[in-house]
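Hi team, as promised in this morning's meeting, here are the two structures we talked about. I've kept the exact order from the run log so nobody has to guess. The first one is mostly here for context; it's the second one we should focus on when we meet again. Sequence first, then the predicted structure tokens.
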Amino acid sequence: MLRYLVTTFRTPQFDPSVIEAHYAFLDDLREKGQLELAGPFTDKSGGAYLIRAADLEEAKAIAFSDPVHISKSSIVTVYEWNAK
């Protein structure tokens, strides 16, 4: 399994009501053993999380099912990350 850094940056259409669903999404990933780290940026512009996936395609499928992406509340970007 490879690591992927997912960044989420709020859009002008950000809907605060999506936060609860976003956290539930992250909790589900954590329970499945796919989420390593997650947290918001201190400037409240968005956040990031580190997931494990077999390949970039799977990582994007996971990240793009995040409620903040589906609702267009945030721009979600996925990077393969060779963190050590």
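And here is the second protein, the one for discussion:
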Amino acid sequence: MIKTLDTLHRWIGGLIGLLLALLGLSGAILVHKEEWIGLPHAADPLNGDLGTVAATTEKLMSLPGDPQGIIYASPRLGLHQLRFEEGGLYASQSGGVVSRWASQWERPEIWLFDFHHHLFTGDFGEWVSGIAGLCALFFIISGAILWWRTRRTFQFRLWPKRMSRPAIVMQHRDLGIIVAPLLLLSVVTGTMMLFRPFAMVMIAPFGSVSEAAKALEPPKYMGGPLAAKPDYTAMLTEARQRFPDAEFRILSLPRKAGDPISLRMKQQAEWLPNGRSTLWFDAATGKLLGSRDALAMAPGAQAFNIAYPLHAGKVGGLPYRLALTVSGLAMALLGSLTVWTFWFRRPKPAKRPAKKAALVTN
């Protein structure tokens, strides 16, 4: 049993270790993206005043190019992000354009996010990343089992003593058991966001899975075609009345005729950085069609909403982000050295001693 587990651990690691290494490294970088974007006004304090947000929204949504929506400034990033069908822009909280791009390749934080979440291939990439996440979960569990046999030889090393296969294997084994709790947290929360069935298994202890799944599904509202000049000020005013202490997070225009305009907000007690408290407005008239209070959702749904902030370091401040950085860098190191030893430092088969020919006598 142990021999089979060891073989699976090595072979799957050799095949998928490089992908896990890249996901770990990109995740460690993305955890701090608000700090390294480095654009003017990026460090501005959040201004949640209704009048200011409404005026800026009207100004930005009237820009040429048919904006698709706004990701509003947050406490860690003082810029609004305007999305277009192709490209986008950053704007200050007063509505001044700070940076514009026609392709995601012009903004490192955007293409890096696309790689980490979709591997540049949309839904297919999510499936691949999800499978990689399940493999990583297998590595953590099987690695802990395999480590237990050799626990008496444990030594802490950030880097192998030598770049020989035995030294790398020892470092891999002992570093892996140290960072296993952090890796487990990163892997479980990341896989939950990619594979809904896995997420439902993880939130089952918190309440009814069927109620949670129903709560997470967006309601189906039908309205008229998008008005030429939607009254965003009235929508934001209605939203502030519904959720007085909430931050404005994402305004999204309908993707097809009849769909509503949606506005996501984040209440103070929510961990999810973009919130899950949502309002839907008729795109033609601006009339409120319905709203959802994230804090009143089923317990399982609220547990699911915690996965992303835990995975991306959106709670806990700098100490927690540094812990996730350690997790990502450790995965990058473990994955890359696994591939190196598997493909380039494999043990040579032992040479069998030549049998002496028997003397034949007549």
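Starting points for discussion:
The longest strand covers residues 247-252.
The chain has two domains: 2-35+119-207+314-344, 45-91+220-297.
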